[in-house]
Recover the amino acids of this structure.
RNA sequence: GCACGCCUAGCUCAGUUGGUUAGAGCACCUCAUUUACACUGAGGGGGUCAGGGGUUCGAAUCCCUUGGCGUGCACCA
């Protein structure tokens, strides 16, 4: 029975939630339930959104990418698994909750609530966001297996985190060390190097001497830290200062004790920069600390504390001052004592905490680190080595274990980052996170691993044990994501089946944070790669190219857009016109365009379903009866082949554009109109539509599934087989060789040409016209297709003549080798016709000239592939033919 | 400072290993008013592919170079 009850426009709202529920209840999101023999698995571990907030457009983009991929693979017959999850986002979440609590009136939430009290607040906050996030992921249509839902901070993941820590601790890859780290005063916690955001800041660089008898002037942007200087470094080849190397000078700059400044040699000092000498402050500069480690006897004097104020060691005059107050005071002192030489305004960048926002202090502290350079016991390789080989020669030099990065330029960026990588500081002084599973014995001083409460010290039996207060960097747990979500450390069936994962997509901004850490963890723990392919995507930006941000207030809520336009429209607008690695601008007009297209798909289906009696599934390509049938089936084969090829390369934009063209231009604009004329195409219409729905499903799952219901196939579209390419020929070449397609294209051209003549001569669209055509070889074709031409070009009378006699009172144009004369009832506007023809003559002349030149060039004829040369010859012949006709038309005009 | 990316129609962007007279969407202009779809249809205008040089029979595409925009890393005495 034809369907008569379909609404005129597709209304996504109201339908989508029900469809999602149906998918979910089918159980097919879980690959173990998928029908048929499926030997190959395809796994994606969803980048877990942070529970700091709710999902933004960037998440919608990422969900569109991964869901389109996983749906494609599911339809291709793979065991397709998309593991969903969320991230507790340690520092970020605590920072967020603390700032909210402060808004509510608390002054120091950590002090006022205590560890358990604050954690409870954060847990509530996180749980709340988790459930919002999950419902948002569902809104986006993401087909993930909810039975495997994970959270970086749940019991299973915490178990994995502790086990990794234990192994690294035993291998002495994790160590506790006294180092200069990045300290956020505001957050009262460390930050890793990657968690810094550098911003430009204007500052003053002061040049001065420590004392009148000190021989070398130095410069600094941080005068207050000079109270903790213990050395001056010069280049060993610097003739000016060579003689001083090794000498010690005692200077009194007002610190608690006079400073003993040793002149040391360091090849890293640039002779030509500034004074050529560097004041060394081991306690408050990572670089200076490195110098100190090479020359420990120079000493280290911390003059800034965790509270961001000057310490006792800075001296009575300075103790308790903020760094800025101390800076002013010290500069004033230099001036008063005539030690000040000069100052200069410069712009330099300072590191700020990406979560707390304050400029970080470099402070020396005991922290936990992962040693990236140490050889792993029993492996002869460092973590850095493992991280490198996974993207170059393959893990353990196994070429089958190479991670492919798309686009591959990010491989270079990643390798460069590894070269500069220092030991990873993993301890944080926030409370929200995996507590470091290490216990200290207050009696014997031993340090031991323990993931649960330790009753007594293994070494001395003391019960005075306490656990480390710190928590782990959130990326420590994220690094384990691909395997911790599959049940590790148990050797689960899931791990065997679904790991390494197949595909991963992420924004380039977390390449180092996440991709690098996943590679580090997985190669170390699993002795394997975490995934085979990484698709790096760009950032979404506003229409003016600015970042979406809260402070700019230009953010768009994906759920609002979904409510307005539907999920499919949002998904399509995010994928069409977006290429790997590049940023894209997002604005509502794009979604509107996509929504219009989705409505087009709906109406194509509506037309077919309403006009067909026997609605059924057509599995086998039906027989083509007319030229148009052959053409549409041929084009469907082409677009199917293209889609398969492009999807296998994750070219989402290209795929969607090709499908879009076929759907709107070929199928809707031409074939459906012809179907109305020729009739008897029920099976072909159903066949093409059903194939289209399958091809489109990964991109726009809701509308396609909704339409699919009308076929009563008893099966969800989601698990239908994706149409396979029938031929493996080059589809483009095939197309060109195919005369039938050429014939149909000519018919299209004839129709367009007549339409164009009509429009240019202001003939009312409803008015029927008389047309005469002149052709040598296409008479049979035109006669065969005359009904189509008549109807689509609004022609009431079509005659074919052979002589070169132009019909009276007509205007003419050329389509291929066919000359078309449109008979006018009124007088021909000769001057307008002349201008039009002359323009075409001159264009054709230029074209002929270009082609002739090309073909006259013997080098071209000799060197270019014969196929190309033949093509050019053919083009020239056609152009000549056209020219003759055009000239005749010009003559006839007079 | 080093590296990477981008510059194609008014706007936003595609353009696969170099080979049709360089494409799409939006916007614009003309026409159509109930058609499966106005979330529509038909027709049209609009580009020295940032500038310069090179390689090649042939360059938007490869190389060099200049400029503009952006990003990463390093330096930041």
């Amino acid at each position: 029975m034809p369907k008569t009850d379909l609404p005129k426009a597709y209304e996504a709202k109201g339908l989508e939630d029900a469809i999602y529920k149906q998918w979910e209840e089918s159980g097919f999101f879980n690959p173990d339930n998928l029908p048929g023999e499926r030997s190959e698995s395809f796994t994606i571990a969803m980048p877990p959104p942070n529970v700091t907030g709710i999902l933004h457009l960037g998440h919608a983009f990422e969900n569109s990418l991964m869901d389109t991929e996983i749906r494609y693979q599911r339809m291709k017959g793979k065991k397709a698994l998309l593991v969903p999850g969320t991230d507790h986002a340690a520092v970020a979440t605590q920072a967020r909750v603390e700032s909210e609590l402060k808004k509510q009136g608390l002054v120091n939430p950590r002090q006022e609530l205590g560890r358990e009290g604050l954690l409870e607040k954060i847990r509530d906050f996180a749980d709340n966001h988790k459930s919002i996030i999950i419902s948002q992921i569902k809104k986006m249509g993401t087909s993930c297996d909810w039975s495997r839902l994970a959270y970086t901070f749940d019991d299973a993941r915490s178990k994995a985190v502790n086990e990794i820590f234990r192994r690294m601790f035993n291998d002495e890859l994790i160590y506790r060390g006294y180092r200069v780290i990045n300290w956020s005063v505001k957050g009262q916690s460390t930050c890793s190097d990657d968690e810094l955001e550098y911003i430009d800041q204007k500052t003053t660089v002061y040049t001065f001497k420590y004392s009148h008898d000190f021989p070398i002037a130095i410069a600094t942007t941080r005068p207050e830290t000079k109270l903790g200087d213990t050395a001056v470094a010069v280049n060993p080849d610097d003739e000016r200062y060579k003689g001083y190397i090794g000498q010690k000078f005692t200077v009194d700059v007002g610190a608690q004790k006079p400073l003993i400044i040793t002149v040391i040699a360091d090849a890293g000092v640039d002779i030509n920069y500034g004074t050529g000498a560097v004041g060394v402050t081991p306690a408050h500069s990572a670089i200076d600390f490195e110098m100190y480690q090479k020359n420990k006897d120079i000493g280290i004097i911390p003059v800034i504390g965790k509270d961001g104020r000057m310490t006792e060691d800075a001296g009575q005059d300075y103790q308790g001052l903020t760094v800025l107050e101390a800076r002013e005071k010290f500069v004033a002192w230099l001036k008063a004592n005539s030690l000040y030489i000069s100052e200069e305004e410069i712009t330099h960048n300072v590191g700020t905490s990406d979560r707390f926002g304050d400029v970080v202090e470099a402070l020396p502290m005991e922290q936990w680190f992962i040693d990236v350079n140490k050889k792993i016991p029993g492996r002869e390789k460092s973590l850095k080595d493992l991280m490198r080989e996974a993207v170059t020669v393959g893990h353990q030099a196994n070429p089958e274990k190479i991670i492919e990065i798309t686009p591959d330029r990010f491989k270079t960026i990643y390798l460069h980052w590894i070269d500069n990588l220092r030991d990873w500081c993993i301890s944080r002084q926030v409370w929200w996170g995996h507590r470091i599973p290490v216990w200290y014995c207050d009696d014997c001083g031993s340090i031991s691993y323990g993931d649960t409460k330790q009753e007594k010290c293994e070494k001395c039996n003391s019960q005075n044990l306490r656990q480390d207060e710190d928590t782990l960097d959130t990326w420590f747990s994220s690094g384990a994501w691909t395997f911790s979500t599959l049940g590790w450390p148990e050797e689960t069936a899931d791990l065997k089946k679904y790991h390494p994962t197949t595909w991963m997509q992420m924004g380039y901004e977390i390449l180092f944070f996440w991709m690098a850490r996943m590679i580090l963890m997985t190669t170390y723990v699993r002795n394997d790669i975490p995934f085979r392919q990484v698709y790096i995507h760009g950032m979404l930006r506003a229409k003016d190219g600015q970042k979406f941000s809260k402070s700019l207030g230009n953010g768009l809520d994906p759920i609002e857009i979904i409510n307005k336009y539907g999920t499919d429209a949002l998904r399509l607008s995010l994928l069409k016109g977006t290429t790997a690695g590049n940023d894209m601008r997002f604005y509502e007009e794009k979604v509107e365009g996509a929504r219009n297209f989705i409505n087009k798909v709906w109406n194509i289906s509506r037309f077919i379903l309403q006009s067909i009696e026997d609605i059924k599934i057509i599995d086998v390509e039906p027989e083509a009866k007319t030229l148009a049938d052959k053409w549409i089936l041929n084009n469907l084969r082409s677009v199917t082949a293209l889609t398969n090829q492009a999807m296998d390369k994750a070219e989402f934009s290209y795929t969607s554009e090709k499908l879009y063209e076929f759907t709107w231009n070929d199928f809707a604009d031409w074939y459906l109109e012809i179907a109305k004329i020729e009739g008897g195409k029920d099976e072909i219409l159903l066949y093409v539509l059903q194939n289209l729905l399958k091809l489109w499903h990964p991109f726009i799952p809701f509308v396609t599934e909704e339409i699919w219901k009308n076929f009563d196939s008893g099966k969800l579209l989601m698990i239908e087989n994706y149409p396979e390419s029938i031929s493996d020929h080059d589809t483009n070449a095939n197309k060109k060789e195919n005369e039938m397609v050429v014939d149909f294209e000519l018919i299209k051209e004839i129709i367009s040409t007549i339409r164009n003549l009509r429009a240019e001569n202001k003939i009312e669209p409803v008015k029927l016209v008389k047309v005469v055509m002149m052709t040598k070889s296409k008479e049979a074709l035109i006669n065969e297709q005359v009904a189509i031409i008549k109807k689509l070009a609004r022609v009431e009378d079509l005659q074919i003549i052979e002589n070169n006699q132009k019909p009276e009172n007509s205007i003419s144009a050329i389509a291929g080798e066919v000359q078309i004369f449109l008979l006018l009832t009124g007088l021909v506007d000769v001057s307008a016709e002349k201008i039009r023809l002359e323009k075409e003559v001159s264009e054709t002349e230029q074209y002929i000239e270009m082609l002739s030149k090309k073909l006259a060039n013997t080098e071209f004829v000799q060197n270019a592939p014969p196929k190309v040369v033949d093509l050019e010859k053919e083009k020239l012949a056609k152009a000549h033919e056209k020219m003759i006709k055009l000239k005749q038309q010009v003559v006839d005009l007079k």
Remarks:
- Residues 597 and 664 of chain A are 8 Å apart (CA to CA).
- The longest strand of chain A covers residues 340-353.
- Residues 728-733 of chain A have pLDDT under 50 and may be disordered.
